Amino acid sequence: MKISIRNITCVLVCATSSLVFAGNQSEFNLSGEVEAGLTHNSALSVDELDDVSNQSDNGHTLGGMLQGKWQINPKAQITSRYAYNQQRYNEYSQYDLDLHQFSLDSSYKFSQVELGLRFDGAKARLPAGTFLDFQQLSVYVGKFLQPETFLRGSLNLKNKAFTELTQRDATGFNASADLFHFMNNAKTMLLIGLSAEKESAEDNQFNYWGMGLNTKLTHKFDIFGLSSKVGLGWRYQYKDYDSVEVSEFQARYNLERDEIRQVIQANWEMFILNNLSIVTELEHGNYKSKMENLSYQQNVASLGLNYSF
């Protein structure tokens, strides 16, 4: 069963309408950011299309985000967010990417627990045109286990629709749990996240179940009188795809495409003005698959400026 934007919108309207009447005092805040930078990619790829190249290239990035937060009362709030990001390469323009992302989040705080409903949508476009529409509806609950430790769990329904490769169209279910632990008066944060998911596609060869682990450590400090923030993270993802029998040149064999992905990321953000920062990011990815053409390593480095308001 596919999840349509119309159905998701109806659910969100019903859920958030009750929050509107939760109180008479409200406050609305608008914030955003713009960023631009330079990037280097050692292995250009579009994972969603199984397009992996051993070519490297340099390029530039440009992006922006606008967020509106409506604090209806001390317990209820609605947040909407739109973000746009683009990357342009110097030589291999077929990998130029435009990404539009939108989210709508409504939450309510009870005495000890926060309950929320969230919708996320994304549209990805290459020079040849839009190739992917993504939608996800999430229900989440969060609670402080201790003053410095916060636990959040979520259940998610997702839908992927491809413009041309319709055999990849899929619906899925995901469950996740994230633990946030704050130290040094909240200057240091440790994140540990676990997830499990099941996805069913139009073509059985793209069906899979998977599990993931996400860890990140961030720390805020001052250097040369300037505020800085560094982060180090590691992501692990395992996907167990269905084994399907295919025929080719009067021969039959089982097609297997199980995957293991490991990504290490480091970043450093230093504020040179109150709202202007220099952001440096390094990322190393090790992607392994039973399909040889989908096994590769990738290094990405970027340097940019970010202005927030």
Q: Quote the distance from N terminus to C terminus.
A: 41 Å
Helix content: under 10%
- Helix-strand makeup class: mainly beta
**Integer average pLDDT:** 91
Largest sheet: 14 strands, antiparallel, barrel
The radius of gyration over CA amounts to 21 Å
Instruction: Identify the strand order in the major beta sheet.
Output: 1-4-5-6-7-8-9-10-11-12-13-16-17-18
Count, helices: 1
How do the helices and strands follow one another from N- to C-terminus?
A: HEEEEEEEEEEEEEEEEEE
How much of the polypeptide forms β-strand, as a percent range?
over 45%
Q: Which descriptor suits the 3D outline?
A: globular
Q: Outline the low-pLDDT stretches.
A: 1-23
Assembly state (oligomeric): single chain
DSSP, total strands = 18
Structural features, described:
The protein has 1 helix and 18 strands. It has a 14-stranded antiparallel beta barrel. It is globular and about 70 Å long.
